[in-house]
Amino acid sequence: MTETKTTLSRRSALQAAAGLAALPLAAGVTARAEAAAPGQTAAAPVSPLAPTPPMGWNSWNSFAGTINEEQSLETATIMAQKLLPFGYDVFTVDIQWYEPEASSYSYNPNPVPALDDHARLQPAPNRFPSAKGGKGFAPLAKKVHALGLKFGIHVMRGIARHAVKLDLPIEGTPYTARDIADTTSICPWNPDMYGVDMTKPGAQEYYDGLFRMYASWGVDFIKMDDMSRPYDDHAPEIEAAAKAIARCGRPMVLSLSPGETPVPRGAHVRQHAQMWRISDDFWDDWGQLHAQFTRLENWNQWMGPGSWPDADMLPLGRLALGDRDTKFTPAEQTTLMTLWSIARSPLIMGGDLRHLDAPTLALLTNPEVLEVNQRSIGNCPHFLEDGMKVWTARNERGFAQYLAIFNTVGERDLTVDLAQIGARGSFVVRDLWARADKGDVKDSLTVHLPEHGATLLKLTPLV
């Protein structure tokens, strides 16, 4: 039998990871586990949270930091009607909900955010009126939950610089914001926060109080930013957030952002979070999409229940404060959804749902494609030839095989030798995007794909 070939990039990454595992780590960071065999997950689930890749919507791609309460409720209502029946159930308000003057994708260099008396950011009342009187996001979360959705928020690592300036007290301690802040730990792209020095008394208590507040609001999902790079420097705060969630009394999925999270830290990150970004912000650019192939190949060993390498949101439909529609061609959009599905990345829609068109809705809600994302096993990349990317997986029962073929160059025919992907015999071929059977094949399979196009097939053995 012909030996299945893994991607060269993935093999190189595994070798590099093994060499880096002995490097000094930040306090509390454990060494990386041995790499799993191709197509297998690294270890048993470490958390009952997120047994399948999370699915939902996030406000960043369409609203930047500007979304308000009215827009949130309008969007959540559309989401519940059109996407929830297909499994998209996490509604997330992204960055700067605490900033009264947020207006675009750029940030106010001297923000004066809404704060409570214990140094914790609050929803800006001019944008989220129901938060007045110390109610926080509880009223909005209640309405989102009533729609059948989970409620998520974006938060930044650390403590607000303005809270440090005011030297506000840390709840339940004799310490203040200045006592725990690390004013040398600054996010390079956002001016809102200082890092927290986890060696200082009161530091863990600050994070514990923060997540108790989120729990009281009814938060189900936390996207925590400025965490994954530099990873070892931020590892103590990653651990602090995970510990605070465990203590807060409410289950919350923790998603770390942005990337590129270092692959050699896979064992540590999956121990403390259920999702983590594998790249910087992903937008509708072919070069960025092409780069995600290698990243998903390299991270495949760490993918599995409760442990989801995150290729970032889906920049589809209307984007960028309504200024434009996605720049991805229809073929590239199919490639995006096929790759995220076969590699089992979380599916978080980023486009403005108020302008959701029929083709985008169909792309997001194909049940046979979503089954691959949510239920497939043994997911594995292969290298067959330049300009062609191939992934395989099996259905949940292990009987049928999924085959994703990607064309990264110009329009052409591509042929897959089935023996090279471990498939021998005759098969019934089903096109999952077309939701139609395409006849029988034996030994090899040829498809015609447009430039940057993809197909996703199901091969069922003939018996």
Automatic annotation (TrEMBL):
It is an enzyme of class 3 (hydrolase). GO terms for biological process: carbohydrate metabolic process. Belongs to the glycosyl hydrolase 27 family. PROSITE patterns: TAT. It comes from Novosphingobium aureum. It catalyses: Hydrolysis of terminal, non-reducing alpha-D-galactose residues in alpha-D-galactosides, including galactose oligosaccharides, galactomannans and galactolipids. Residues 386-459 form the Alpha galactosidase C-terminal domain. SUPFAM superfamilies: (Trans)glycosidases (SSF51445), Glycosyl hydrolase domain (SSF51011). GO terms for molecular function: alpha-galactosidase activity. This is Alpha-galactosidase. The keyword rRNA processing does not apply. Keywords: Disulfide bond, Glycosidase, Hydrolase, Signal. Residues 1-27 form the signal peptide. Its EC number is 3.2.1.22. Pfam families: Melibiase_2, Melibiase_C. Coiled coil: none annotated.
